[in-house]
Structures are given as structure tokens and as C-alpha cells.
Amino acid sequence: MELEIEKALDVICAQLKENEVVKNYQNAKAEVLAEEEVVELQKEVEHWQKEIVQSDYFAKPEAKKVAHQKADEEMNRLQETIEVQSYQAALQEANDLVQALTKRLEENLEEPL
């Protein structure tokens, strides 16, 4: 039984890799990862998020407030890049495809024999 499931999943995955929505998502992801500005902004966001945690741990409310503000600013800059916007749109489309596929599979399994 497990072998049959694995084979079926392999077929579905192979077909998904050829789907235009999936290809668009993969291309958008590659563009985001290749864009130096995006990578640097992501590092800045992560830095300020770590500062938030440390400030909270050491009970430094003013430092935490500043770190939150900086993290928000960097996140906004990151969200405004064309690459991230394209990636988010492609990710949403891919997610919609997966949800539709899951729904269709569930419906087919529930059909009377």
C-alpha cells in the first residue's frame, strides 16, 4: 500500500512541477533569493527581531520599543520591494492551487463507490 501511495505522490508532484503557477512561484522565489537588497533587508529584520527578544529578556522596555520600530521600518522596506511583492503574489497563487487540489482530492475520496 505504501508503495502505491508513493508512486501516486510522485506522479502528482511531477505534474505539479510542470504547472505554470508552480513555475512562476519557483522563479519568483529564485529572484528574491538572488536580489542582494532583499537578502540584506531580511538580515536587518532578523537582527532587529533578535534585539526585541533580548530587550524583552533583559527587561529593557525602551530598547524593545526602539527595536520594534526599527524591525517594522525594515519590514516595510522589505515588503515594498518589487521582488518580494512578486514573490508574495506567486506564493498566494501556488497556495490557492494546493488548496484547490486538496479540496478536489477530498471530494473525489468522498464520492460514493
UniProtKB/TrEMBL annotation:
Gene3D superfamilies: YheA/YmcA-like. Residues 84-111 form a coiled coil. Keywords: Coiled coil. Pfam families: Com_YlbF. It comes from the Bacteria. The keyword Zinc does not apply. InterPro entries: Biofilm_formation_YmcA, Com_YlbF, YheA/YmcA-like_dom_sf. This is YlbF family regulator. It comes from Catellicoccus marimammalium M35/04/3.
